Amino acid sequence: MATISFKTIPINNSTVTSAARLGELAISSIPKIIETPAAMLYVRSGVVPDVTYDFVPDNVTRLLEIPLGSLVESMNNLENAESYANFARLVDPIYCPFHDSLVEVRPGGNGNLFSSLWTKSGRKELNIDRFKKLIQLVQPTMYETMFDGDTPFDKTTDKRFTKDRERSRRFLEHSLENQAISSNLIIPLVGGHDKRHRQLYLTEILRLLPTYEKNIFGISFEGIHAYGPSTEHINLDAIKFVIEETKSKLNEHPNLLYTMPLLWRPDNVIRGIDLGLDLFSGAYIPYISDRFVILTFQYNKDMPSTSTRTDYNINAKEYFNGKQALLTNCECYACKNYTQSYVYHLIQTKELLGRTLITIHNLYHYHGFFQEIRKNLRNNTWNEYRIMILEQYAPSQQK
């Protein structure tokens, strides 16, 4: 595995009252520093959905988010390759979350010696040895360890919380003890919405940190939702206390990276940054692109205002004769070369190029948004910027 390091950068901004922070992620396998907050590039089985790597916009952060669920069925093929990166001809760093942000995790798939990955073809059981083998085959730059996390809100008993903690701790310790896969770990913080159990598990992590500080790279907040489409509308205010209290206990470790798997709608991105999160799943883009949704929210004050809506569905009949670009004055490849009516026609005729052009635009728009986030954090304008974004989404939330 590549060697990596993460450090936070002080923000000279007395008006920032949130926990928002800037960071730099250095990876030995690439020359360029990855700046955070950042969205990853969601990849399924080595492929960006609907787009070849040649057409991924230049402003996209090239940190590949490859869920283990998209790889578990390919283990036999991977055994014949030196590594997954060689097998899929990937040159960018890889982050492997345990679950896929796009796929709902159903209850009842875990045991004392195994956990389940939910894929589009169903449940795939993964025991400790098989998990280790998969990580050795993939050789990700960083990865999330196995965990239980089956703790639905208002449906979890105290006994279930205890099993969740014990199993997740056992899975974590097995990863730390195995020299071949013990580096660059993202630790899932479990315990659901139960404050006591989350604190008990955090205490166990704090006990491990002094010994394994070089191995533990970051924290992922888990067990507080079921993944999948419902997380687009998650109420982050309802789980704010989970993140804030946890981070307050980790103040002595300022260079831990924080992440949480969700379908990160732009207004929730702002709330996540206010909570001090550094790395965001990129799964929101294939999720909306698959539904023909075009992002149009104003992420830069120099853009023409689109105050009436933050996005629209290009599959609507009103775009049959649309002569303008998907978004006026957008500099992405799709908007500079094609019209709304042409993309509408491609969708109606079920041409794959339609989804490709939608994805190109949405990737450009979404990652441009993160560029502006970092710029405003540096320039002492974060509060004004966050208000600009949140106000655009407020009418749709009230509706």
TrEMBL record:
Residues 19-394 form the tRNA-guanine(15) transglycosylase-like domain. SUPFAM superfamilies: tRNA-guanine transglycosylase. It comes from the Eukaryota. GO terms for biological process: tRNA modification. Gene3D superfamilies: Queuine tRNA-ribosyltransferase-like. PANTHER family: QUEUINE TRNA-RIBOSYLTRANSFERASE ACCESSORY SUBUNIT 2. This is tRNA-guanine(15) transglycosylase-like domain-containing protein. It comes from Adineta ricciae.
